[in-house]
């Protein structure tokens, strides 16, 4: 993401300062991410010594402490990837729908992916990791289209309020269906909880690898649409006047977000509110330029999910708290704050 | 000159009252019939004369267990919970003039459920004190949602969105409490997440019955004012209703009922939300919705529980059945409201 060099010569001073500040913030967020990754490996339900951590990182799994650390490594990787994906997906969705309340959880997209996987496992006997992921992505896409159509019926198109309500209702609906399908099927991997509340516990590298190509595609598509999202932010008429194909831009960017949400949900289950909170925080640091906002949201999402996972491991000792519970506890107040304070149309 | 007009108004009113009574009679018959059916039919058929003899106090070993211990408490609890959810739900919907503003969507049921599960799992409490805590928590959540959505007055839509946020948090709290519990079964977890009348005992019915009598009586005594509130606050005030006081009373009564029921059966999904609109379809414009909605709620829980136990391929708690039933209706409602373009 290179700031366009042509206009860089004659920028007014405040914007120049903003750019330097952004670079500084980017470094800080990246540093925070590194610290959190280190903490995530070191802290957990079981206290382990530094020597255990060092030898586990070297690949030795002999003592219980080393085994615990060895299990935390894939978990941290998964939290990093899932957080980045959800943060980025949230930022894209807020840009595409121009809706401050958009979030893969609130709009029902994650729950749609969850439901699709559950249906696939229960009735179509999907088993391979790839089948899981493709089914989840299809489910996420179907849910996104469904919610958007419901939310844009009637006068005024897809207002934030209508979208949020349609998404929340759809989410509740899917979640009931997931319970109804999974409850009698003790054989379904993970059971009810895993498909109701997202978590990164029990991650293994074997489960993470198949998702990587899908996540990578999602990241590329999403990050490439940054400039076009900037045009969309001006409003549909103006964007069209600037030569953007509004509908195509929306579809491509949304496709990227759906790839990210579907792939993440296939591994972690539905994690909500992260995609809502992160872009709002990122906007405080960077302003609304999507070329900065998107990378910041990805980094911030990774930070927040890892932090939430660490908190989840500490607060409920000796048990663990699924990260989806922590993100909802942190994210829902932000949702309420936005509902109260943002100048949301129709509120 | 005026006489024919007055006559037609009077006959019209009589006709509507008659229809209202007929609808009430019909619903009452439906609830009673389902109630009897659930007593008679389970894994096995129990002849009615055996049940009657057992109820008369005769010693009937097999029947005393299947009907006396299992089916009867369950059916009674289902009816009481259904009545409470239906009545409390429709009171909120009428007062806020929005079908989406039902206590299970704006978080009140979740507050009661969280308090109940906290009291039972963490504090190890039992009995009426759990209900009292649940009612207080329900009131607290109602107050919180109201306060959070207050900004130059309370817009119905903002209230609903704030309620959805609060619900998400409370749901997480419930999941958190359950995850810290030393041992919890999926069935127990589902009670607090979607509602169930599994393992009902007759002793639980008494506090629920008392709450229903007190709060339901309070609500029904305000039925007239509630009808006036349906026309809008200003019109209601012009008609002589003390809007503020009435509203507080209605909230206390409705939350009291919903929370007492939730403390025992968990927040049975969507019964509070569904009963009002279904009753409105049946009653039409022929009078108060309160009693028809209460009876509809009872019928929903009874039928849902029966389906969940015996008619579906495997056993579901009632909340899963009503949840799967109510969810499409919720989406349908949003589609309809969006299409008509009106405010919710």
From TrEMBL, chain A:
CDD domains associated with the record: TM_ABC_iron-siderophores_like
GO molecular function, one term: transmembrane transporter activity
Transmembrane helix found in the keyword field: yes
PANTHER family per UniProt: FE(3+) DICITRATE TRANSPORT SYSTEM PERMEASE PROTEIN FECC-RELATED, FERRIC ENTEROBACTIN TRANSPORT SYSTEM PERMEASE PROTEIN
Subcellular location: Cell membrane
Gene Ontology CC annotation, any one: plasma membrane
Gene Ontology terms describing biological process: siderophore-iron import into cell
Residues that span the membrane, as ranges: 21-43, 76-93, 105-126, 132-151, 163-183, 208-226, 247-272, 292-311, 323-340
Protein name, UniProt field: Iron complex transport system permease protein
Domain of life per record: Bacteria
Signal peptide: none
Keyword Transmembrane among UniProt keywords: yes
Keyword set, alphabetical order: Cell membrane, Membrane, Transmembrane, Transmembrane helix, Transport
Recorded topology in the membrane: Multi-pass membrane protein
Major subcellular location class: membrane
Pfam families in alphabetical order: FecCD
Family per similarity comment: Belongs to the binding-protein-dependent transport system permease family. FecCD subfamily.
From TrEMBL, chain B:
A Gene Ontology cellular-component term: plasma membrane
Transmembrane segments: 23-45, 75-96, 105-123, 129-147, 159-179, 199-220, 248-274, 286-304, 316-335
Pfam families found in the cross-reference section: FecCD
Membrane-related topology note: Multi-pass membrane protein
Keyword line: Cell membrane, Membrane, Transmembrane, Transmembrane helix, Transport
Highest rank taxon of the organism: Bacteria
GO molecular function, one term: transmembrane transporter activity
InterPro entries (alphabetical): ABC_BtuC-like (IPR037294), ABC_transptr_permease_BtuC (IPR000522)
SUPFAM superfamilies noted in UniProt: ABC transporter involved in vitamin B12 uptake, BtuC (SSF81345)
Single GO biological process annotation from the record: siderophore-iron import into cell
Alphabetical list of CDD domains matching this protein: TM_ABC_iron-siderophores_like
Family membership: Belongs to the binding-protein-dependent transport system permease family. FecCD subfamily.
Protein's UniProt name: Iron complex transport system permease protein
